[in-house]
Amino acid sequence: MFSTHIIIVNYNAGDWLIRSVRSALAFSSGQITIVDNASRDNSIANARAEFSGQTRLNWIENTDNRGFAAANNQVLETLEADFAVLMNPDCEINEQSLPLILDAFSARPTMGIASCRILNEDGSLQATCRRCFPTPWSALVRILQLHKLFPQYQRFANFDYGDDVNKDTETQAVEAISGAFMVVKKTALKQVGLLDQAYFMHCEDLDWCKRFEQHGLEVGFVSGASVLHAKGVSSASRPIKVLWTLHLGMNRFFDTHYSMQYSWPLRYLVKLGIGLSFLARSALTLFRGILPSRVKS
After folding, report:
1. Could you tell me the CA-to-CA distances from 93 to 11, 90, 97, 244, 262 in Å, in that order?
2. Whether the predicted pLDDT of 222 surpasses 70
3. For helices 43-50 and 16-26, what crossing angle results, to 10°?
């Protein structure tokens, strides 16, 4: 029987942290470590009080926000279990989540990392639970929304796998999975290495999956298993900063994996697109925040 170690990185997750830890205790048997990145709410204090005396729980309270990758690495670098489970504090697992994924690892020896169907609270699928790697062309198409403006042209087709998933489909190899919930094999981790801490939050999961691919290891999607993900709970209080770190991550991913493959005009265009995307999405976020207050007044 495989051993697991669940890692939950918390930042201002509120009551969701208790829900997440409760599900981890109920539907896993190994150690669980909660790494708190200097939360400013009562989430960590309330969780410690709720689960006082639980010997399976380990608590790490950082004095500053180290980011998603660095916080997970605090546990991954000394991992003893056969598998590490990286789980957001706004996620809940169920009784089948881990058993089905661990069975898939047994059936596919070349699989190094895997995830499953990640569901919204209404039961709908989050399309980002299985993704294709962004390329300069696909990034440009998405930034300019060409796939929506010209849906009849295959050249501008959306580059994701889509949200049509049959839960009875066998495990499949995909390019990338979501960092909201990832299960990684220890032996594969030794080959690929830890998460890249230069990513503060966002795109470190894409980078990790790319590195697994480069080491000849499969990135698996186990459609029979599922987890619930509230999405954005920790990000709600700082939307512009989250957008900033997202676009920094996009820039780093491009520089790391693609910059040397393309001429300088295309590199310049991609970076310009990333910058314009940040400005446009930030403006839209600010507008959405201002509009409700005006309506109320």
Report:
1. 19, 10, 6, 30, 41
2. yes
3. 40
**Burial class, 52, CB count within 10 angstroms (exposed 0-12 / middle 13-18 / buried 19+):** exposed
Return the residue matching tokens 């980011």. Answer: 67
- Both tokens of 285, joined, read 């976020």
Give the dihedral sign, CA 20/222/4/112. negative
Alpha helices by DSSP H, 12-107: 16-26, 43-50, 68-76, 97-107
- Kindly compute the dihedral angle of the four CA atoms of residues 263, 268, 270, 276, in this order, to the nearest 10 degrees: -170
**Average pLDDT along the chain:** 87
Q: Dihedral (C-alpha) 118, 30, 214, 252: value to the nearest 10 degrees?
A: 70
How many whole angstroms separate alpha carbon 170 and alpha carbon 21?
A: 29
Higher pLDDT, 104 or 151: 104
HSE of 99, CA atoms in CB hemisphere, 13 A:
5
Contact 81, 10 (CB under 8 A): no
pLDDT tens digits, 38-94:
999 999 999 999 999 999 999 999 999 999 999 999 999 999 999 999 999 999 999
Rounded Cα gap, residues 86 and 5, in angstroms: 9
**Contact, 106 vs 171, CB < 8 A?**
no
Query: Cβ(44)–Cβ(61) under 8 Å?
Result: yes
Q: Angle, nearest 10°, between helix axes 239-257 and 136-143?
A: 150
H or E element, residue 182: strand 181-185
C-alpha torsion 233→234→239→243, nearest 10: -110
Query: What are the pLDDT digits (tens) for 251-264?
Result: 788 888 777 777 76
